[in-house]
Every structure is written in C-alpha cells, then in structure tokens.
Specification:
The protein is mainly alpha-helical. Helix content is about 75%, strand content about 0%. It is built from nine helices and no strands. It has helices at about 1-50, 55-65, 70-85, 90-105, 110-125, 130-135, 145-155, 160-170, 185-195. The termini are far apart. The relative contact order is 0.06.
Amino acid sequence: AWWSENWLWIFGGIALGLAMLAGWQYWQRHKISVAEAAASGYREVIQALASDDRPAAIAAADKLRLEHPDTPYTDQAALALARVAVDRREYDEAARLLQGVADTSIDVELRNIATGRLARVLIEQGKPDEALALLDASQAGEFAALYHDIRGDALNAKGESAAARDEYELALAGETDMNGLDRAFIELKRDALSSGDPSGDAAQ
C-alpha cells in the first residue's frame, strides 16, 4: 500500500535529481568550452604581437572582447596591447586601453595592475596629479608597495622630493618579496633624492 501511494514521488525525485546532475554537468562543460575559446583568442593576440603584426593583434583582441567580454583573457589582451602602445610612445592609446581594464575588469588583481600602469603612463604624459589621484595605497592590498613606488615617481616628477622620498620609504617598508618590485632600484631612487641627484625621476 505504501509503495502504491509513493512510487510516483520516488521516481519523480530520482528523475529530478538526474536532471539536475545532467544540467550541472552541461554547465561545467559549457564553462570549460568558453574558457578554452577565450584562451585560444588570447593566444592569437599574443602570437600576432610576437610576429609584430599589430593590426592582427588588435583584430583578435576586438573579437575576443566581443565574444568573451567577461573573461580575464580579454583584459589580459588589452594589457598586452597597452604595453606595445607604451613601447611605441603612443600614450593616449595606452591610457585608453588601461583605463578600460581599470574600470571594467571583474578581476581585482587585473584592475590594480591596470591602474598602476595607467598611473605610470599619466606621469609620462606630464600628468602627475592625475596619477596621484588614481593611487590609493591604503586600498591596494598586496599592491600597496607598487602604488607607493609609483606615487613616489609622480611626486618626484612634480619636484616634491621630500614627499617622493617618503613614498619610496613606504614602498620599501615591511615588504619581503615587494610583489615583484625591484627593491634595489627603489632604494636608488630614494637615495638619489637624498643626495639631491635629479636622476631618480619617474621616467627611469
């Protein structure tokens, strides 16, 4: 009697569970497929840049942004193009690309990287005040040392040597790996300011 009253619910629950499992597996396969496609698009950008084919790299990056706008690969492609623009001294283009990543990336680390690079570009453009406005080291987490270093460069570009030296000191303070920063170079910039040597400027 119990079976006759409950078999439909039992089989219904089993069917629902199987359907949910199938749906979950489909979604996982879909995510993997999207990630692989985005990674392939990013490789196209890098390969084109390695071949010095900038138009192809831009086209591949545009396609990547159109098809996979919410993946980190799109932001990484923009960072790669920005680096090339900086090497070519095309600072307006570099700033545009970096601003886009800083404003819209869903990856906090990539946003911080883009913000730091954008600040350096602004210093090169003679806009140290705008660079300083971007860099809140108190909110930068593991990028605090980087932000202090760049703030030092911006203040040095403004001729505010004492404040720049303070920022370099903060960049050096309490950091072990410096998140990839060159401790010796920061010390060189700091010491150059102490001695009155103008060579420790932001362009180095």
